[in-house]
Amino acid sequence: MKKTLALILTIAMIASVAMLAGCGSKKDAGTATEATKAAEADAAKTYVIYSDNAFAPFEYLDTASNSYVGVDMDIMAAIAEDQGIKYEMHNEGFDASMGAVQSGQADAMIAGMTITDERKATFDFSDPYFDDGQVIVAKEGTKLEDLKGKTVAAKTSTVGGEYAESIKDQYGFTINYYEGSDNMYQAVLTGTDAACVEDFSVIGYAIKTGQVKLQIISDAPANVKGYGFAVQKGKNAELIEKFNAGLKDIKANGKYQEILAKYGY
């Protein structure tokens, strides 16, 4: 009787262990399947990325190829290749890009966007990929003291606009806002505004390449900060991680400097 009871208990224990093992395998298999599906979905995802459309040399229309080119376009392409990111680019303008990310219409934006504490309230940023600051630009012969009582052009929703606001009382000017850099330059060239505030690298490129006949009348670039790749706050963290990893890689392998050299930096 004792032997029979012992045999029954042994069989029961073996069956229980087998059942637990089976349950564990199913659970592990389910978890593995979910992880695999998530990885496959991530690999198959095509991100929608927005950018500016007139901010040379970071993004601008190349009329010969009828496509947008520039530092941002090349950096994004290099990082995407390095990290296996699939994306489609929409060059819709700076304000439109910010709005698209904030509304969820776009997954991210890369548009010479300066990283600021104020913007961090609504965006998550990558590591900085380029540093720049603001300068005041006007027709040849214009001096800073000539701006008193005049209007100065600035772009809406930009750090350049914020900088213009911070110095307008010091120099005694008022501000006219424009959607694009080209509009600002034209306003200064036609005399609508006495000067404009622009990122140093952008206006420097425009002057150097002969696109505009203006001169920088302020001292060294002010308010220097980094440009960042941006997503909606709390969203697409994996995309920020991939961008940062890719940025690190292209800096290490020389591709980053090759891109900057292409545009004169």
Structure notes:
This protein is an alpha/beta fold. It folds into 2 domains: 46-129 and 228-262, D-Maltodextrin-Binding Protein, domain 2; 133-225, 3-Layer(aba) Sandwich (D-Maltodextrin-Binding Protein, domain 2). It is built from 8 helices and 14 strands. The chain has helices at 2-44, 71-83, 94-103, 159-171, 181-189, 200-208, 237-252, 255-262; strands spanning 46-51, 54-55, 59-62, 67-69, 86-91, 108-109, 123-125, 130-138, 151-155, 174-178, 195-199, 215-216, 222-227, 230-232. The strands form 4 sheets. Strands 8, 9, 10, 11, 12 and 13 form a 6-stranded mixed β-sheet that branches. A hairpin with a 3-residue loop joins β2 (54-55) and β3 (59-62). It is elongated.
Summary?
The protein has 265 residues and is of the alpha/beta class. The chain has eight helices and 14 strands. The protein has helices at residues 2-44, 71-83, 94-103, 159-171, 181-189, 200-208, 237-252, 255-262, and strands at residues 46-51, 54-55, 59-62, 67-69, 86-91, 108-109, 123-125, 130-138, 151-155, 174-178, 195-199, 215-216, 222-227, 230-232.
How many domains? The number is 2
Strand content: 15-25%
- Classified in CATH, the superfamily of the largest domain is Periplasmic binding protein-like II
What fraction, in percent, of the residue positions are helical? Answer: 40-55%
Mean pLDDT: 89
Q: Which class do the helix and strand fractions yield?
A: alpha/beta
- Quaternary structure type: single chain
Name of the top-level CATH class of the largest domain: Alpha Beta
Beta strands, count: 14
Kindly report how far apart the N and C termini lie.
Answer: 92 Å
